[in-house]
Design brief:
The chain is α/β, with parallel strands linked by helices. Helix content is 34%, strand content 21%.
Length: 320
């Protein structure tokens, strides 16, 4: 695949119209965020927590069309918590690679709000390292009422109001990016609001990012930008050269934000980290259900869905 087939100026209306008319928008990568760092089975009993559950659901999502999986490994002794242990990430990553040849493994460095900067980076030091790791470009605050974990769910606890902040400084973010660069791990750049483009420019000045840049817009998360079409277009307008973008929509905004990514020539993320309902009143059965739906959306909208090999080529990753 030639670079110009998947790397282009999203802001150019003439190129967008030409590519749309001729069916030459780039192949669309589907990332599946199978679980998260906060909510668990108390929100949806089908959400995978253990390493085995995560590997099972990644395999089904992979068969459905996901080329990349975003993983939050949990503490085996307390599955309500995100781990700070590199061995837990190595175990999940190995299980996924054995079952899903070539899939792009994307581990979180966001972790959970209770982790230190060093603990969030644990996945970067795993014996079975990821291909990609998320790189949040700033702090964010959230206030979420969490339901009680009741038996027979493992590791029960009372419900509570989760009012927290995940801190980050310029130094922290550059440390994450520099460590990823040293270890050959591709950063997936997470932007929650337009002000974080200041941080992206700082990373570029410091030489801690290499093209092509994968920039992911997080829409509808608390203290991120509102999930509106206008805000997606605003994000696109500030992308640096040699960038690709993907769109996340949280909760009921997953489908409209996916549609924006498909239509504008970007890429998408789905998964139970972002959304535990398939539609109003109906919980998601598994992550593959969300992958299947977005793949069907893309095909209906005349977008080719990327293979693992195409995704690795676009991101500049080694062939597996």
């Amino acid at each position: 695949m030639k670079k110009e087939e998947y790397m282009w100026d999203y802001r150019n209306p003439y190129e967008w119209m030409t590519r749309t008319m001729t069916g030459k928008l780039p192949p669309m990568m589907i990332t599946c965020a199978i679980t998260g760092g906060v909510q668990g089975k108390e929100m949806n009993e089908n959400l995978p927590e253990s390493a085995e559950e995560q590997a099972d659901q990644v395999y089904e999502a992979y068969k459905a069309g996901a080329v990349s999986v975003h993983i939050h490994a949990r503490v085996p002794e307390n599955l309500a918590m995100t781990t700070a242990n590199a061995e837990d990430y190595a175990r999940v990553n190995k299980m996924v690679r054995e079952r899903c040849p070539g899939i792009i493994i994307n581990n979180t460095t966001g972790g959970g709000p209770w982790l230190t900067t060093e603990q969030r980076m644990c996945c970067l030091f795993a014996e079975e390292p990821p291909d990609v790791a998320s790189l949040n470009l700033g702090p964010f605050v959230f206030k979420i009422p969490l339901k009680a974990r009741k038996e027979p769910i493992l590791h029960p606890r009372d419900g509570f109001l989760f009012d927290a902040i995940i801190p980050a400084t310029y130094a922290d973010i550059n440390l994450y990016a520099k460590t990823m660069k040293e270890k050959g791990i591709k950063p997936e750049i997470e932007i929650y609001h337009p002000g974080q483009y200041w941080v992206l420019q700082d990373l570029l000045r410091e030489g801690n990012l290499d093209p092509p840049y994968m920039v992911q817009f997080v829409m509808g998360f608390q203290t991120s930008s509102y999930p509106t079409p206008a805000n997606v277009l605003s994000f696109i307008n500030e992308l640096p050269p040699q960038s690709m973008f993907a769109v996340i929509g949280v909760g009921p905004f997953q489908i409209p934000m996916n549609a924006m990514g498909i239509m504008l020539g970007g890429h998408v993320r789905v998964g139970m980290e972002d959304n535990v309902y398939f539609k109003k009143g109906e919980k998601v059965k598994n992550n593959a259900q969300l992958v299947t739906r977005v793949k069907q959306m893309a095909e209906t909208m005349n977008r080719e869905v990327a293979t693992v090999a195409q995704a690795r080529e676009m991101l500049g990753l080694k062939k597996k």
